[in-house]
Amino acid sequence: MTAASRQEKLAAIFKSAIVIPVLTIERFEDAVPLARALVAGGVRVLEVTLRTPVAADAAKAMISEVPEAIVGIGTILNADDLARAKALGAKFGISPGATPELLKAAAGTDLPFAPGVATASELMQALAAGFDIVKFFPAEQSGGIKALRALAGPFPSIRVCPTGGIGEANAASWLAEPNVVAVGGSWLCPAADIRSGNWAGITAMCARTMKSLKPA
C-alpha cells in the first residue's frame, strides 16, 4: 500500500464516521456490549485507547465479536504500540502526539495512521513524513477553531480530526470547518453509563447525535 492510498483509506474511514468515540475501557466485560450499543446508535468507527491494562484485549474482543464496528487503536505512543495495534487487527491508529521515531515507524507500515499535532512545527513534521491527515489535540485547549484556522492558512491541504474538549454542544461547529473530516470525543459514552451498563442510554445518545450532525 502506498502512502497516498493509506491516507485515502483513513480519510474514507473518518469521513464515514463523522464522530469517533474515544473509548477508555476499564473492565473487559464492558467492551463488547459497549461496541454493540454504539453500533446500534449508528456509530461504527471506534477508537479504543491504550490507557488501561485491558485495552488491547477489549479491542480484540470488539473486533472479533462486533464485525459491524470499525475498530481503531488510540493513544499510540511508540513503535511497539503501533505494532500491537496492527497485530490486534485494528483498522487504523491514532496518537496524541508524534515523535520522529513513531512517524518513521508509521510511515513504514500499511496501517492507516493519524499522528497528533498541536503546533505548526509538529504539523510540518507530520507532513514531511507523509501524513496529511492529523489529530488536532487537545483541540479546544490548543486554541480551538481559531487555532485550527490559523494552521490551515499555511497548510491548506491538511485534513483534521480534532479531539479534546469537543462535545455535543460544539461538534457541529468543528465539523463545519472545511478541513475537518471527523471529530473525536468521549461524550457519546459517559463513564457513568459504561459503569452502570446503560447501553440503551448510550445507543440513544449516539442516535440523537448522528441525526443532528449528518447533513440533510
Concise overview:
By secondary structure, the protein is α/β, with parallel strands linked by helices. The chain has ten helices and nine strands.
What does it look like?
- It is a single chain.
- The chain is an alpha/beta fold.
- The chain has one domain: Aldolase class I (TIM Barrel, Alpha-Beta Barrel), CATH 3.20.20.
- The chain is 45% helix and 15% strand.
- The protein is built from ten helices and nine strands.
- It has helices at 3-17, 31-40, 55-65, 79-88, 100-107, 120-128, 144-152, 171-175, 191-196, 199-213, and strands spanning 19-23, 45-49, 70-74, 93-94, 113-114, 116-117, 133-136, 159-162, 183-185.
- The strands form three sheets. A four-stranded parallel beta sheet has the order 3-2-1-9, sandwiched between helices. It has a three-stranded parallel beta sheet with strand order 6-7-8. A two-stranded parallel sheet has the order 4-5.
- Helix 3 links the parallel strand 2 (45-49) and strand 3.
- Helix 2 (31-40) packs parallel to helix 10 (199-213).
- The longest helix is centred in the N-terminal third of the chain and has 15 residues, at 3-17.
- The model has no long low-confidence stretch (mean pLDDT 97).
Topology of this protein?
Layout: H1 3-17, E1 19-23, H2 31-40, E2 45-49, H3 55-65, E3 70-74, H4 79-88, E4 93-94, H5 100-107, E5 113-114, E6 116-117, H6 120-128, E7 133-136, H7 144-152, E8 159-162, H8 171-175, E9 183-185, H9 191-196, H10 199-213
Parallel strand pairs: 1-2, 1-9, 2-3, 4-5, 6-7, 7-8
Helix pairs in contact: 2-10
